[in-house]
Write a structure and sequence with these properties.
- The structure is a single chain.
- The chain has 283 residues and is an alpha+beta fold.
- The chain folds into 2 domains: 2-116, Orthogonal Bundle (434 Repressor (Amino-terminal Domain)); 190-280, no CATH class.
- 46% of the residues lie in helices and 14% in strands.
- The protein has 10 helices and 9 strands.
- It has helices at residues 2-14, 17-27, 34-41, 45-53, 62-75, 80-91, 103-132, 134-155, 161-167, 276-280, and strands spanning 190-191, 201-205, 209-214, 220-226, 231-233, 241-244, 250-254, 257-258, 269-273.
- The strands form 2 sheets. Strands 1-5-2-7-8 form a 5-stranded mixed beta sheet.
- A hairpin with a 2-residue loop joins strand 7 and strand 8.
- The chain is flat.
């Protein structure tokens, strides 16, 4: 009897994370379809299917893979930490703790992942269309270049001084860019560059963290997972709020000065006011 249990446990240990998820869904007491669980968890059916097949590349980012896997495992009655660590092992990642993911975070992550997957699919279709009709695009591009040359050659030959005055470029003085703070880690990538000139609040991820920003009307103006070094320039104005997947993993700079932490490391935080006065009031 003990030998049979040891063989069973060994077999389960050798299973991949995807195989364990599929077996729990199809061979347990409550056999269910993926479509049913997808509706309950608010996770796209194609992402659950990707988890069961170990095809993690179909899920846009690692934080989504681990977040979806953890919730899927809990729904199926499996140990979520074991499933997450198995996936990390399969991907060659050290089994470190990840940020706590709430239901609101999960829905936001799912929407972002679906949007990115659709965007990639549309890009693939566009590239394939251009590849099949490259000759028409080449002809059209040649016509545009020829038209531009005609305008330059014949338009620039006029001796009319009035036209020269009208055509003279007006030099506009650019607005001074915001003074960058002395970040604690080197900048990797910048987001929200259109806000750079007037931003009073700058967020930098010092660890991997999901960041979502809404305006006063609740409209999402920014939402994505940042990796260590990424910077986001918050639009200047009142009423902006943020959601952090890893509150302790971000530095918030106000007017070049580091604001107090808005939450502990590896914890999520919602409805954080991004008004400069609110961020600095604890100092």
């Amino acid at each position: 009897m003990n030998d049979e249990k040891n063989v069973e446990n060994k077999t389960e240990t050798n299973l991949s994370a995807g195989e364990m998820l599929r077996n729990a869904r199809t061979m347990g007491r409550r056999k269910r379809e993926i479509s049913t669980i997808a509706k309950q968890l608010c996770i796209a059916e194609e992402f659950l299917d990707a988890l069961e097949n170990g095809d993690y590349k179909k899920i846009p980012e690692l934080v989504y893979v681990l977040g979806f896997a953890r919730n899927y495992a809990m729904e199926l009655g499996l140990d979520p930490d074991m499933i997450v660590n198995k996936i990390k092992t399969e991907l060659g990642i050290e089994p470190t703790d990840e940020a706590t993911i709430t239901n609101d975070d999960l829905e936001e992550m799912n929407r972002a992942a679906e949007y990115k997957a659709k965007l990639q699919e549309w890009l693939r279709i566009a590239v394939e269309y251009v590849r099949r009709h490259w000759l028409w695009f080449a002809i059209g591009g040649g016509i545009i270049v020829l038209a531009m040359l005609v305008v330059i050659i014949f338009g620039g030959s006029s001796d009319n001084k009035v036209d020269d005055v009208v055509a003279a470029p007006v030099v506009q003085q650019a607005a001074p860019a915001v003074e960058e703070p002395v970040y604690n880690i080197p900048v990797r990538e910048r987001f929200g560059k259109e806000n750079m000139a007037r931003a009073k609040v700058i967020i930098q991820a010092i660890e991997d963290s999901y960041i979502g920003v809404e305006d006063a009307k609740g409209r999402v103006v920014f939402g994505r997972s940042l990796v260590a070094g990424d910077v986001y320039y918050v639009p200047n104005g009142s009423g902006y709020k943020a959601k952090f997947g890893n509150a302790g993993g971000v530095d918030i700079w106000v007017g070049g000065e580091l604001a107090p932490k808005v939450g502990a490391n590896k914890t999520s935080k919602k409805d954080v006011s991004l008004n400069p006065e609110s961020l600095m009031k604890k100092k």
